[in-house]
Design a protein that fits this description.
heterodimer; A: about 425 residues; mainly alpha; 19 helices; elongated; B: about 120 residues; alpha+beta; Alpha-Beta Plaits; four-stranded antiparallel sheet; two-stranded antiparallel ribbon; 3 helices; 6 strands; sigma factor (chain A)
Chain lengths: ~425, ~120
Amino acid sequence: MTDARAAVAEAFRAEWGRIVAGLIARTGNWDLAEECTADAFAAALESWPRDGVPDRPGAWLTTTARNRAVDRLRRAKAGEAKLRLLAATATADEPPASDHVVHGDHGDHGVHGPRDDRLRLLYTCCHPALGFEAQVALALRTLTGLTTAEIARAFLVPESTMAKRLVRAKQKIRVARIPYRVPPPHQLPERTGAVLGVVYLLFNEGYGATSGDGAMRPELTREALRLAGLVAELMPDQPEALGLLALLRLHDARAATRIGAGGELVPLEEQDRGEWNRATIAEAVGLLQRALRRERPGPYQLQAMIAACHAAAARPEDTDWPRIVRLYDQLLEHVPSPVVRLNRAVAVAMADGPEAGLALVDAVAPELGDYPLLPATRADLLRRAGRRTEAAEQYRTALEVAGNDGERRYLARRLAELDRV
Amino acid sequence: MDTVSQPTDQPIRYLLLISADEALEPEVISDEGLRRFQEWFADLERRGVLRAHEGLHPSAMATTVRVRDGEVLLTDGPFMETKDQIGGFALIECADLDEAVEIAAGHPAARFGQVEIRPVR
C-alpha cells in the first residue's frame, strides 16, 4: 500500500513532464494535456495500491492519460484527424525501457537527433514572447508538475495571481500561436540561452532569496536542480547545459552550511567545509569535466569552474585566488557585466589584498547604481583593510537594502563585531 | 471550457502595427530608409504572406471619435497622445508567431520604433 503510493510519487517525478509534453504534441491543447495527465495519476493512486504497481509505470500512465484524452476529445467531438493522430502515436511516446540519464555518452543525440517532447515543451515555455515570470511558472507547472498553489507559494504571490498568470500564458501560446518546437538551428544559441537562463534564475531566486523570511527557498532550488538535470539530459551535446547543472550542484553541495543556526547567512570562508557534500561535488566536477572536453566554454562552465575551485580548497586559505581571478577575466569576456566585475574585485582583494580590491570596487560602483550587494561587498573589504569606521558605515547601508533576513542577520553580526572591539 | 485548439497547418493572420517617433520621419523617407523598406517588402512578396499594407498620414491628421450619452464627441488628434504613433500597418498571413516575429523584425521602423504583433481573431 505505502509502496504503491511511493511508486506513484516516484512516477510523478519521473513521468509527469514527459506525459504532459507528449499530449501537448499530439493534441495541441495544454489544458487537456495537464488535466488528463493529472487524471492518470489520480487513477494510479486508486488502482496501484489495489492491483499492484504495473511493470512499466510510465507506460501505464502514458496509456491511461492518452485514453482519457481520446475520451475527452470524442465527447468534445474533435476532428477524426486528431483522434487518429492520438491512436497512431499510441506506442511512439511510451517511455524507453531504461531511462536515459545524464551520465554516459549520448553520441550525437542532441537537439538535432532523436528528441524528447519535453525539449519542445521547455523551449515553448521559455519563448521570448512570454514574460520571464510566465516562462518560469509555465515550465514548473508543465514539466515538474508543481501545482498552481505550490508555484504561487514559491513566488510569494496569491494563488489567484499565479492562476491568472498561467492561464494567460497558455492562452497566449494558443491565440498568438507560439510554435511548439525546438527552434531552428539559427535561433538555437539565443533560445538555448533563454532556457538555461530560466533555470539559473530560478535557482538563484531560491538560493539567495531576494525576498522573504529565510535566506533560502529550498523548494525553488530543488525544482531548479530537477529542471537543470532534465535540460542537461535533453541537450547532452550542449556543454553549457552540463556546465549549468554542474554549477547548481556545486552550489547545492554547500547549501546546508550556508545558513547558520540563527538563520544568518554564513560566508564561504566560515562555512564548515567538512559538511560540504563531497559526493555531490565529485559528481558535479565530473559533469564539468565532460562539458569542458567539448572545448566550447561559456558563462555557466566558467562559473562552475570558479565554484569547483572553492570546493577543492580544504581550508579557506588554500583557495587558489589567482586562478579564480583569471576565471573571472574569462567570464568577463562572455558576460561583461558590472556584477561580474564586482565579484572579480573580491577575488582580486583575496589574491592581492583588500586595497587592490577596493580600488576595483570603486571603479565599477557607478555602473552598479543601487545594487544591494555593493555596500555589503565594500563593507567586507573595508573590514579586511582595517578601515573600521568606513566598514561600519557600509554595513549600515547594506542592512537597509538587504533583501532577506538571512543577509540582514549576517550584516548585523558584522556590524556588532565592529562596534564591540 | 473544453474547447480543443488544433495543432493546425492553417495559416494564422497577424496585424503588424508599426509605430515610431514621428519626428524621425526623415529617417523613414531617406534613401537608405526607402531601400530598407523595399527590401522588407520584397521579402514579404517572396513569402507570399502580405494581405494588406498601408502607411498613414501623421497623427496630427487624425480625428478621434467617441460617443458619450448619445453625443458624438470629436478630438483633434490621435486617441493617445504619446511620442510614438502608429505610422502604418500590415496584415500578414503566415505559419506562426516565430515567422511573424521575423517579418516584424525586418521592418525598417523596428530599428528606431517598434512593431506590435496582434493575432487577428
